[in-house]
Amino acid sequence: MKIVAYLSALGLAAIFSGCAVGPDYQRPAPLPHESVPAQFSTNAPAATNESIWKIAEPSAHLTRGTWWQIYDDAELNRLESLALTNNQTLAAAAARLAQSRAQLMGARADFYPQLTLGGTPNGDLTRQRSSFNQALQGQSAQASHTYDTFTAPIYLGWELDLWGRVRRQSEAAKERFRAGSEDYESARLAIAAQVAADYFSYRSLDWEYVLVTNTIDTYHRSLELTQNRRRGGVAADLDVAQAATQLHSAEAQLPDIALSRAQMLHALAVLCGQSPGTFAVVASDTGDATNVPAVPASLPSQLLEHRPDVSAAERRMAAANADIGVAKAAFFPTVRINGLAGMQSVDASTWFDWPSRFWSVGPSVELPLFTGGLNRSRLGVAHAAYDEALANYRQTVLSAFGEVEDGLAAQLLLADKWTAESQTVDATRRALEIATNRYKAGLVTYLDVATAQADSLLHERTLVELQGARQTASVNLIKALGYSWETNR
Length: 489
What we know:
This protein is α+β, with helices and mostly antiparallel strands. The chain has helices at 2-17, 74-86, 88-108, 165-231, 237-271, 308-329, 374-440, 446-481, and strands spanning 114-117, 125-129, 135-136, 139-140, 146-160, 334-345, 357-366. The strands form 2 sheets. Strands 1, 2, 5, 6 and 7 form a 5-stranded antiparallel sheet that branches. A two-stranded antiparallel ribbon has the order 3-4. Helix 5 (237-271) packs parallel to helix 8 (446-481).
């Protein structure tokens, strides 16, 4: 008992001392051969962000908010709520998070003594016969016995965590759980961003469909005008043919737009966990087709820390670091306290009598003398796994910077293109008006009108597509940051 008390005290001292083999985790540099860029810098000088970036730190405790509300669109808010409630990919991510939480609980269980009731090798209730020729003092016993055994045992097992194996194991499980939490946030962010991007694409196609439909109505009136002028002897058959060609060409564009719009609607339905056959997008009274959130001239560097994939990559790196400690602990002795107690009798009537009690307790020490290189192999695997996690972390950081740069460039350049295209649309509308008036005055043929109509429709559609692209680009920038700059106010 003195030995048991000594080893128990030794184990408790080791636990509370915080001693554990293997390296303590230190956050490495995000980039191996260069410092983190001090500022955003795209090819367009106006897109430069003056804020200083620092090493990203995990931010699972920070809420990422309902960032889509910056678009002030009631229908988008409804769709986001549907998706985050019903999306099955997100439900699977939540289930994976629950698994990692349960695994963390399992890893922590090794801190505590394990008690087991029952489960003896020969069973708790047995009837057995000994061999007539069993060995007895080197000779045959020349006797056999048949008897019953009634046993009610309780087993105790507890590993003294002298080298920190259990602590490192728990540490690794904790970091993987935190990574799982960030994976869930990544899935949530991806789903929300996809819903917003698809919604804006659907709205763009909707506006494009209305534009082409209205243009077809205009072309109908132009054809009627041309036909009337032909009957009056003012226009030629060629003018009528050109007007009809223009009309039917526009009509042929509608099915393609309608198909793309239907496919986008079905994609939204799947994202929202709804049946595509009955799903519908309601016209929004608050949504603004030109509402693109303005990006501040300077974004705080902390925003990148909200990217859940960056945080998850670092958590996995920390878990891999703890795994090295687990592998190193295998080189040291394993000390366990084993105990057995219970009631045993050959007669059921005396099974639980006090004299039927039995118990034993004592330590066991297991020291690996020769494992054929198994422990060294496992340590090598752990080191290589850490190197892999480190490379994945750095790649994630690089990708994050690249995506933010892409998003900032898209915001700037698409805005410039939209401004230029708006001016082009104004010019084509004016050109169409002039061509139409000149045609009515008999100064030009209908070819000039048809050309002006084609240019006007082309640039009107381009402007609508650009507007949708600008809104989608703003969503992609928010996704690249992992957070909306608006929600940081």
